[in-house]
Write a structure and sequence with these properties.
The protein is α/β, with parallel strands linked by helices and 515 residues long. The protein contains 13 helices and 11 strands.
Length: 515
């Protein structure tokens, strides 16, 4: 007994020493700043010298401050910033001028004013395959890999960032396959189930364990000898058919593609309070952002690029044919990813609205003020808030004062495959997203695709004259594509068009992509 107490005392001293060491270690680093979203937003406004922001419009058309849906007043500054004119006024006439002069100019302005800069001290990510599972999706055998990307936090161990990604690849194909990376919540699609023998063993062990916990259960199990605590899966009926058709992932697998799902929340939180945590907080050592620091959209794009780093090492994946996909806020992130990371070969950009494909200077539905307010500002760099300012040290600014706009962001994707997808308001893809303003941006961006030897929508680049085509009338003959399906806030109905469209351009050597 005496030795037992001695051990307790020794353990207590050891534990206390560990606690003190932990506290000492924490004292070596700047303490984590914890803000609410409102506090963080106010902090950024103070950094920018803003006293008052204009409120964003309401999506309720019956509200007094409802968004504008009158097309006649939707273009207060219809002349878009030039794509193919350099800052010193020179016309861009060759691909070399685009790559060496104009594209870097646009990237600088997008980073400074809209999406934020990548930090200089980019952190290493070490990928680990946690689980490998062999499954069957419909008739397709697949391998599913649960992956975790551990971000190096040795310089600030108070924050952990572990990127969550799932890779699913068909096994009934020859050679490495194209992969579409999607923003979303990863999960095993059809986890392999135990065999009959293994399940019997599990059930016997489970029953024995329950009896040890409560001996009265022994009599209960004797009364129901065929009872199994864990039920067997119901066998799949051979002629069973799904009434709602295949899912997008099933369509990809059936076409010989793989897919990866990457969790944005594991990279950076989708709120302002999280800006001192996640990858942004880790790089900033738990401190608030500066005005040109990256926002969540750029952070998610960075995480997708780190996911691509892993895919480049997986022999089942054709890393030269990896695409990026997302809908709504993740549609914005997919476009930002494709624009800034040239290793992605293609993108499916779904219902992205402001901050994505829709022109920022348009006043139709969602407004610059919507993104500058405290609800969505974390997607953008702090500097973006300036364009919703009513009173500030620099005066009043609106979307018309932005030096760049989304047509130029689309142009940064050229000449890679870029498919812009929308649904219809009647089914839930709200007018708020401004489909017309997105189409105008796609039309304008086409000039850069053509300059780089790719094909655009096949119409003129006059964004003020070209009219949006009817629903279900996709423009899919070029490397830049547009299609408005007749569904809601999803891009699922367009997968059946996206997959064969991308397949037409499978030989990427015909397009002069700058790597």
């Amino acid at each position: 007994m005496k030795s037992f107490f001695v051990l307790l005392i020794v353990f207590g001293i050891f534990y206390t020493g560990l606690s003190q060491e932990s506290k000492t270690e924490k004292s070596n680093y700047p303490p984590l700043v914890t803000f609410t979203t409102r506090e963080d937003h106010i902090n950024m406004m103070e950094q920018l010298g803003i006293q008052e922001l204009r409120p964003g419009p309401s999506g309720d058309e019956n509200a007094p401050n409802h968004a504008n849906y009158d097309e006649s007043i939707a273009n207060p500054c219809p002349e878009l910033p030039e794509i193919l004119v350099t800052k010193d006024g020179k016309k861009v006439t060759t691909p070399e001028m685009w790559w060496n002069v104009r594209r870097p100019e646009l990237i600088e302005e997008f980073e400074r004013e809209m999406y934020g800069r990548l930090p200089e001290n980019i952190l290493a990510v070490n990928w680990e395959v946690e689980i490998t599972d062999y499954e069957r999706i419909g008739w397709t055998p697949v391998v599913a890999k649960k992956l975790v990307g551990h971000v190096d936090n040795s310089e600030y161990p108070l924050i952990d960032v572990n990127i969550d990604m799932m890779l699913v690849v068909p096994l009934n194909v020859k050679g490495p396959v194209p992969v579409l990376m999607m923003f979303g919540r990863p999960s095993f699609p059809a986890p392999a189930q135990p065999s009959e023998e293994d399940l019997d063993l599990i059930n016997r062990t489970f029953k024995e364990s329950l009896i040890k916990i409560n001996p009265e259960l022994e009599e209960v199990f004797k009364r129901y000898p065929a009872y199994e605590p864990i039920k067997r899966e119901t066998p799949y009926a051979f002629f069973q058919r799904r009434s709602d058709g295949p899912t997008p992932t099933e369509e990809l697998l059936a076409a010989g593609w793989g897919y990866a799902t990457i969790n944005p929340a594991s990279i950076q939180a989708d709120n302002g309070a999280g800006l001192t945590r996640g990858i942004i907080g880790l790089v900033n050592k738990g401190q608030p952002r500066k005005p040109d620091d990256w926002g969540s959209l750029r952070a998610w794009a960075w995480g997708a690029a780190r996911g691509l780093d892993y895919l480049e090492t997986d022999t089942l994946v054709d890393a030269s044919k990896v695409g990026i996909e997302g809908v709504s806020r993740y549609g914005k992130a997919a476009l930002v990813t494709l624009a800034f990371e040239p290793r992605f070969a293609m993108g499916l950009i779904g219902s992205s609205g402001k901050g994505g494909v829709t022109l920022h200077r348009r006043v139709f539905g969602e407004a610059v003020e919507s993104l500058a307010g405290s609800g969505e500002y974390h997607w953008m760099a702090g500097n973006y808030i300036k364009y919703g300012a009513e009173k500030s040290a620099f005066g009043r600014k609106t979307g018309c004062d932005l030096p760049v706009d989304s047509h130029q962001l689309l142009a940064l994707c050229a000449p890679r495959l870029t498919f812009v997808s929308y649904g219809i308001p009647e089914k839930g893809d709200a007018k708020w997203l401004d489909q017309e303003g997105s189409y105008m941006a796609v039309i304008s961006a086409g000039s850069v695709f053509k300059l780089l030897g790719a094909r655009d929508l096949g119409v003129s680049n006059d964004y003020m004259k070209e009219k949006m085509p009817p629903v279900l009338s996709g423009l899919l003959d070029g490397h830049l594509a547009w299609r408005q399906h007749d569904g809601g806030h999803t891009d699922a109905p367009n997968y059946k068009f996206f997959i064969p469209w991308a397949g037409k351009f499978v030989d990427y050597e015909k397009v002069p992509v700058r790597r």
